[in-house]
Amino acid sequence: MLKNIDVLTKNELLDYIYQLEKELNNGKYGLFFDKTANKDNLDNKIPLLIRKPNLDIKGDSNLEHILIEGDNLHALSTLRTIADESGLVNIITIDPPYNTGNDGFTFRDGFQHSEWLSFMEKRLTIAKDILKENGVIFINIDHNEHYNLKLLCDKIFGSHNFISDFVWINNTKGRQISNGGAVKTYENILLYGKNASLINTFEGDIRVLSKEMPLIYKNQNYEVYNDEFGQYIIKNELYNTNSAFNEETRPNLVFNIFYNDQKEEVLFGDIDDVSFKENLDSDFVLIEPHKNSNGQHKYHAWRWSKNKIKNEIKDLHFEKHNNTYKIFTKIRDMYTTNLKDIITDSTNGNSELSDIIGKDKFSYPKPVKLIKRLIKSYQNNYYDEETDSFIEKNEPIIVLDFFAGSGTTAQAVLELNEEDNKERIFIINTLNEVSDAVLVKYLRNINVLPKNSTQKMLTEYKLSKNYKVFLESEDYKKLGIARAVTYERLVKIREGSALKGKYSKENINFNLRYYVTKTIDDNISKDQSKYNLVENCDGILNIKENVYDVIQKELNFSIYSNFNENKVMGIYNNYFDQKSFQDMITKIKLTNQKNNIVYYFSLDNNVDKSIEELVLKEIPNAVVKPIPSKIYEIYKKISDDLKREY
C-alpha cells in the first residue's frame, strides 16, 4: 500500500523502503498502486440480469441486441457466468471516465491514480475473460491516464497482445491543458487482442479514406490486370520482407519454386537439391527465395506455404524478370488498404445526438463515424493451418460496450449492419444515473422545488422521505441516462421519430431486449444461495441460448422460444415437484421444434441420469443441462478474486 512518507519516522521509513525493495525483487515493479483505493465489489451479493419486457424494442430482424441498465461490475460478472471457454464477445469498445477530476472520482492526496486504476482493473480483468480468443478491445483515453492505462493493459492482456495505439485528432483548434505548453489536439485509443497472433491487419477502403483523410491516405493509381476471375492489381511480392523470417526461423517456408508458364503449374524443391531441377521438364523455370541481406542468413521465407501456393495459384501473378520470375499476390479487392494508427476525420457527436433526442442530454458523446471505423476494421477470422491463411467465420460479430453512455456504439453497429449487410449484435451497458441538473429541472416542473431553487433546497429535499420514495418510482427511473438518453436514442432510430436529421425520415429495423441489474444475498448456506439463484436466472439464460419469447411461465418453470432458430428452452426451478416437471416436458414436446434445451435445478454440475432419461424419452432431440451450480461457481470465483485482490 502507498504511504505518505512525510509522516513516517526514520524506522518506519526504512521498513517501508524494505517492503518496496521486496516488491521489486519479487518482480512486481512496474505498475504499483493501492488496490484498496476503489471500494466497489460484489459485497456478498450475487448479481443478476432481470428482463424488462415492457422496454423491449420490437422489429423483424433475427438479431437480438441487448441493453443492460445498471452497474457495469455487476453486468460484466453476470455475462462472465455464461461465457464458455471460447468466450462470448468479439469486440469490446469502451469510453471510460478519463479521470479528469470532474468524473466522479474523489481522491485522497497521493491516490489520484490508484482509485481509477483499481476501478478499471476490476472491470478489464473480467472483460478479458469475456473476449473470444480472436477478440479485441478498443479503449478511448486521454493524457490523464494514457500511460497508466497502457501499463495496466500490458499487465492484464499481456504486453505481447498489444496491437495499436491510435491517435485520434479530435480538436484541431486545440485545448489548453493545465500545465501549459502546446495545446492538446488528440486523444488515444488503445487496442489489445485476447490473442494478438490471431488478429489480421486492419483494412479500409482507400476511396473513402483518401477522401476523408487526404493527408494520411493517398489513392495511388495501380495498373489493373485481368484474368478469368476478374480484375486485380499487384503490390507486394510473395516473399516475407522481414529478414527475421528465414531458413532458420521458418524452414518450412524456404524452398525453391519451379514454374511452368504454359501449364500454369508449380513444383517445389529443397534449396540444396540440384538434381531435382535436372530431372524436370525444361519448361519449368527456377524461382529461388529472395536473398537475405541481414548477414546471418541466406534467404527470406515465403509468405505462403507450399500447399497454399499450389491450391491458390490463381491468386498469384508471375512476372518475368531476367531469367526467372517475380511472384506477386493478386489483390482483387483493389480498393482495400491497410489502416494507419492515426484518425483525423470526425463528425460531431453532440450534434448527432441532439438531432435525435434534443440538446444538452449528454456531455461529450463519441462520434458514430469513429466507432464505426473501429468496429468495421475487425474481421472475425480464424487461422487455418492447412491453407496457411485467415478465413472468415460465418457467425454474427458480438460487440460489447460496458461504458455505453449515450449509446453511440449501438447506433454504430446498427448503421454498419445496414451498410454492409453483415450481422453484428451489440450488448451495451450503462448506469441509469440522474444528474442534479436533470433532477432540478424535473422537480421545478412539477412544483416540488421553486423556479429559483438553490443547491441547499435540493440537498434538503434529498434528505426527505419523499425523495426516498421517489427514487424507487418509474418517474425517477425515466430521468436517468439509460432510459432518457440511451434507450430514447434507440427508440427514435427504430421508429424514425428523431427531432431532425436522417432518423426523422428514415428508420432502422431491429430488436432490443432490455435488462436491469439486480443483486440477491449470497447466503451462508451455499445450497440456499443456489435455490435463490435458480429462481432468478431466466434472464441470463435467455442471452446464453438466444431464446427470449415467453411461451408459458408457471410457479415452477418457464418456457421460452426462438422459432427463427426452431428452438425452445425450458427452465425448471423446483427439484421436488415431479408433476410440474412432467407438465413442462409435455408443453415443450407440443411445440415440435428441432432444438430443445431443458434446464433443471441441481446442486452440482452433474446431469441427473434419471432426469435425462425421462426428458429424452419424451423429446429425443433435447439437451439436458443442470443449473445453477456452474453460474454460482463462476460468481464465487469473481467475488473471491475481488476480495483477495482488493
Question: What is shown here, in short?
Answer:
About 35% of the residues lie in helices and about 25% in strands.
Essential attributes:
3 domains; 24% strand; globular; 10-stranded mixed sheet; Rossmann fold
General description of the model:
It is a single chain. Helix content is 33%, strand content 24%. It has 646 residues and is α/β, with parallel strands linked by helices. It folds into three domains: 31-202 and 346-433 and 480-504, Vaccinia Virus protein VP39 (Rossmann fold); 225-331, no CATH class; 526-645. The chain has a ten-stranded mixed β-sheet with strand order 1-21-2-20-19-3-4-6-5-16, sandwiched between helices. It has a five-stranded mixed β-sheet with strand order 22-23-24-25-26, sandwiched between helices. Helix 10 links the parallel strand 19 (397-401) and strand 20 (424-430). Helix 2 (72-82) runs parallel beside helix 3, helix 2 (72-82) packs across helix 20 and helix 9 (368-377) crosses helix 10 (408-420). It starts with 9 loop residues before the first helix and ends with a helix.
